[in-house]
Amino acid sequence: MQSFNSPLEAFLYWETKTPNQVFLKQPINGKIIEYTFLQAGEEARKMASYLKTLNLPEQSHIALLSKNCAHWVMADLAIMFANFVSIPIYPTLNADSIHQIVTHSDSKAIIIGKLDDFDSQKKGIPEIHKISVGLYNQTTGSIWEDLISKFNPLDDIQLPEKENLHTVIYTSGTTGTPKGVMHSASNFMESSTTLITLFDLPSNLRLFSYLPLAHVAERLLINAGVVLGATISFAESLDTFAKELEATQPHIFFAVPRIWTKFREKILATIPQKKLNILLNIPIINNIIKQKLKQKLGLSKAVFIASAAAPIAPSLISWYENLGISIMQGYGMTEDCCVSHFNTPQNNKLGTVGKTLYNVKAKLSAEGEICIKNSCLMKGYYKNPEETSKVFDEEGFLKTGDIGEFDHDGFLTITGRVKDQFKTDKGKYISPSHIELLLSNNSNIEQICVVGTGIPQPIALITLSELGKLKTKEELSTSLIQTIKTINSTLEKHERLEKVVIMKEDWTLANGLTTPSLKVKRNSIEKIHQQYYKSWFEKSEFVIFE
Question: What is the mean pLDDT of residues 469-488?
Fold first, then answer.
């Protein structure tokens, strides 16, 4: 593997070595537009020439609002070529959230790419320079295609200093206002090198980019792809996602737990579990079934399959293992650039997030909080020195906010979040995370939030999966009661669930109850529903349909 000091240096290497290799594959209206390394570099340089005409100081901030697409990557390259700092924004945020990030980040311009509903978002963009990509039907401000037809490629390329600010990534805001996490170019190179080394990834990878590039994990994956000279494919839409993933057969696939749950639902909608069990127990047939399912999911060539960002139920990992699909669970966060803990094929323990990585130091505080030190920790929170100082201890370790424990083999298990703990009116503190993970074994459940402030015992608020929505109330009640009985037998007395409340509506980004990375926003859910806890608790039935 080549050694590079920045993502830009890595791109320039492949642009020179393999100029005609396809770098980006963008589907539009059922057709695929391909950009070679040379073509992508030329477009990015032309856009950089335009950005330079704005006469902004070096290291100025340029916002990037777009779903994953070829122009996201080219825009990011253009920002690097111009020696500016990228501010990626989740493409599903509403106007108020976009305005908050663009304003707080001091962005001087914004590049607007592939979006589903920009009309509802545009009022959130202040009066700054706007560049829109016409390919995705955007018409606000200057048009990308017009600009690259008028400007020559920037030829005065200055490679960034390793410790220069490379990007500010805003957290998804599970517990409040998003904070801007500052990372240098060297941080991303360290993180990419760790991923490549850990899983022995080959050059010329095929990647499929679909999780938001505003999230550090997807950004890291694409950065690793640039280091290895990968070909990166994108999805045109949610409707075409499955077909495009199957066509790509990427070498790496990363998903959050909710996506793994959705994949299982799709499989079981075609092959019910009883039939699947029978087929998997027939010699020869079982291998044919496994290969067909892996092919259909787009995972037949994957050398690294991962789940992170939230806990995944061990039973779900085991379910996929029966199909010959090994999901490696890992742990990291925006602030440590995803370099913390991971299971590997050589060291994999179900229910844990793996061992401390080779280039990481980890410890538990007196309260059990996981603390991390590596060579790619954030430079701090943008314009927030007070919060920055709070998350580092006196030895320079990052305080993650997660509670965990190591077993005798050195595997880490996440047992909760410091801020998620609540106290029942019996005065007992409860960490809901491990209870929620146990509940997620029930395939009728989609989302879970265990609560209990002001009542004697905790209760579970849930939304139903697609499978669950097909069941009758009687079937659901029977299934949920059995699950709770099983779970309660393993819990401490004060942790045992007293009720399950099925929500009328799903928790979504649109109603403000999940983050762009699909995590449940506990604070928002509690704010809406806490007034009902007491009345729900006092109802005679165990399963309550709201």
Answer: 95
